[in-house]
Amino acid sequence: MVKKVSIVIPAYNEEGNIKAFLERIQNTMIDSYEYEVIFVNDGSSDNTYQELKNASLTYSWVGFISLSRNFGHQYALKAGLDSCTGDCLVTLDADLQHPPELISKLVEYWESGIDIVYTIRQEDKNLGFIKRKTSKLFYKILNLLGGIELEEGSADFRLIDKKVVTLFKQNIKEYHLFMRGMVSWVGYSQVAVSYKPEKRFAGSSKYSMKKMIRFAVEGLTSFSTLPLKFAVYLGAIVSCLSFLYCLYVLYGYLFTSKNVEGWTSMMMSILVLSGFQLLSIGLLGVYIGKIFFEVKGRPSYIIDEFHKPNYDKNTEL
Questions:
Q1: Each residue of 137-173: pLDDT tens digit?
Q2: Exposure class string for 66-81: b at 16+ Cβ within 10 A, else e
Q3: Contact, 5 vs 87, CB < 8 A?
């Protein structure tokens, strides 16, 4: 029986990358496998929809999902995962920074019995200093507080076996998704493959600083309540120190003639405590907000159109 490889590609305003991506994908296809390539149009505002529609009419093995609006990269991945039908699933980005030629190596590891083959991005010296340092800090904090082991440079370029895909389809119903963390958390046999990121073929990165911060907060709060516990411990320490300071002030008032001065230190204490309280309340609000969205039971994404592929990889370019 011929095995089928599903390839899912989220696409948001990637009109300039679709044709080049398909050319490189077809060049990597192995004759002994059947393929389905599913793009997920995540509410693009450019000509991505028309490019995908043309591609699905030209290549029988290409299909696409068009979401009703921009839901975000993680939800586009989930939409593609829920719709694929292969014996394994490969996910990668449409900008060609994830080299499609690496897919054959991921498949080799899968055929050897590995359930999840994930990729590690080698450090890109062309990235800005701040972005590289904040990325390293993110992984260190996540591994410290999140209760999972996520290697630095982990990407959403990976292969997962059908049984893991089925698990995600049937059992992973979380509204707030952090796929990298979830793939690490589920376990199974896993192996890493490193790759050197290529330059974006066309267009510009869609990850603004705001989106990166939101992504980091999502990751840090999706797997652990340690941030809340940290706030409790810090609050207890500050309360003890404040109590000791009150005893010092009371002793000076009752048993010495020296008046306690120091409006500066008092104001600093008030500001520090107020800042800590606001930070703790905000942190608590993040977790309560997650609960709020989970109990509503809203779908993670809404599909507007789904054009299914026909699985014949021999269509001429």
A1: 666 666 666 666 767 777 889 999 999 999 988 888 7
A2: bbeebbbbbbbbbbbb
A3: yes
Q: How far apart are CA 165 and CA 85, in angstroms?
A: 9
| Separation of first and last alpha carbons in the chain | 26
Degrees (nearest 5) of the Cα angle 15, 18, 22? 175
pTM: 0.71
Contact indicator for 190, 115 with CB cutoff of 8 Å: yes
Residue in the structure block whose two tokens are 């829920």? 82
**Could you give the 3-state DSSP secondary structure of residue 199?**
coil
Parts of the chain with a pLDDT under 70 = 124-148, 150, 200-233, 236, 239, 242-243, 245-246, 248-254, 257-269, 271-272, 274-276, 278-279, 282-283, 286, 290, 292-293, 311-317
